[in-house]
Specification:
This protein is mainly beta and 366 residues long. The chain has two domains: 168 residues, Cupredoxins -  blue copper proteins (Immunoglobulin-like); 148 residues, Immunoglobulin-like, CATH 2.60.40. The chain is 11% helix and 34% strand. It is built from five helices and 21 strands. It has a six-stranded mixed β-sheet, with no helix packed on it. Strands 1, 2, 3, 5 and 7 form a five-stranded mixed β-sheet that branches. Strands 4-9-8-6 form a four-stranded mixed β-sheet. A hairpin with a 5-residue loop joins strand 10 and strand 11. The longest helix is centred in the middle third of the chain and has 13 residues. It is flat, with a radius of gyration of 22 Å. Bound molecules: copper (II) ion (CU).
């Protein structure tokens, strides 16, 4: 346990964990300085910034900038407010894409309009608590971290300030980085596979405190929400389970879109809790459940399992038009708590795959 003041200020001790041997730093800095650089502008999920699937040329340094934004966010149609903490203003934070062997160089900005210290732990990075020990920033500070993407796959990143990690994560501070193999994705036979589009679905569960009458409490500030939120979180029963920060975020005008014949890569993260994506009426042709592209993908999956604290990837070529529901197949969480998205697919119906042989009518006597 820690006091409110400690919660707000964080514990600065982590910043001293990692010191690097000076000689090595100079040698590597010279090597890295000779690499080409690319500055990428991140986009809000479910969209993903433009990228090559097969790397062109050798390793490079890929620069990203993310600003942390604390803000109230409406998370359902009933006006329930989450005092959220976000990477770049979205829940989840934006997806970054690089290739294995590239260097990720992130500038993490904590504007002075925020109340809290923050940092970032990349599951794709090696050492210093995934970078968390080197990126602690108070309001009004920024920091720059560079790490080498040595393993391919989809990996979660999340905020991890000492003493406050679960609160920051379940109020919005997680996202995904996808490290593609330099020669692109491969199927179970090692043959190249590619996608026409990619969508990033970040799943979050929220724990909104209730008042004595059972109504959700709308707190005035992030700090005010802390103590009651911790009590609700310790009960481990979420009030909302949502994709992309809000009940229905990926439905209606914001539904994901595809065409018959298009191959879509769905990247799905959950930084805190297990989940089980399922595309109703479709499949996962190739699924990297653990999200790690060095392993062959599973084929023809109906539902795939995403471990809390990880991101997985599923590749599917749409064969029929229509509105598909993309759900967490804990159906209570999908239908009652919010974890349902839609994929609207245009194209021609294939009646070889499915047809209604007889329309509904009176029961026939045989
Ligand atoms: Cu944070």
């Amino acid at each position: 346990m820690f006091t409110r003041r400690e919660a707000l200020l964080g514990v600065a001790g982590l910043a001293t964990v990692a010191t690097l041997p000076a000689m090595q730093v100079v040698a590597h800095a010279q090597e890295i300085a000779s690499l080409p650089r690319e500055r990428v502008t991140l986009v809000a999920p479910p969209h993903v910034h433009a990228h090559q699937q097969v790397a062109v040329g050798g390793p490079k340094v890929v620069e990203f900038v993310m600003a942390i934004e604390e803000k109230p966010v409406e998370i359902d149609d009933e006006g329930t407010i989450l005092q959220a903490m976000t990477f770049n203003g979205s829940i989840p934070g934006p997806m970054m894409v690089v290739h294995e062997g590239d260097y990720v160089e992130l500038t993490l900005v904590n504007p002075d309009t925020n109340e809290m210290p923050h940092n970032i732990d990349f599951h794709a990075a090696t050492g210093a608590l995934g970078g968390a020990a080197l990126t602690h920033v108070n309001p009004g500070e920024q920091v720059k971290l560079r790490f080498k993407a040595t393993r391919s796959g989809t990996f979660v990143y999340h905020c991890a300030p000492e003493g406050m990690i679960p609160w920051h994560v379940v109020t919005g501070m997680s996202g995904t980085i996808m490290v593609l193999p330099r020669d692109g994705l491969k199927n179970h036979k090692g043959e190249p596979v590619s996608y026409d589009k990619v969508y990033y679905v970040g799943e979050n569960e929220f724990y909104i405190p209730r008042d004595a009458d059972g109504n959700f409490v709308n707190f005035e500030t992030l700090g005010d929400s802390y103590a009651d939120s911790m009590v609700a979180m310790r009960g481990l029963i979420p009030t909302h389970v949502v994709f992309n920060g809000r009940v229905g975020a990926l439905t209606g005008d914001n539904a994901m879109k595809a065409e018959v014949g298009q191959t879509v890569l769905f990247v799905h993260s959950q930084a805190n809790r297990d989940t089980r994506p399922h595309l109703i009426g479709g499949h996962g042709d190739y699924v990297w459940e653990e999200g790690k592209f060095a392993n062959p993908p599973a084929r023809d999956l109906e539902t795939w399992f995403i471990r809390g604290g990880s991101a997985g990837a599923a590749l599917y070529t749409f064969l029929q038009p229509g509105v598909y529901a993309y759900v967490n197949h804990n159906l209570i969480e999908a239908a009652e708590l919010g974890a349902t998205a839609h994929v609207v697919v245009d194209g021609e119906w294939n009646d070889d795959l499915m047809t209604q042989v007889e329309a509904p009518g009176p029961i026939a006597t045989h």
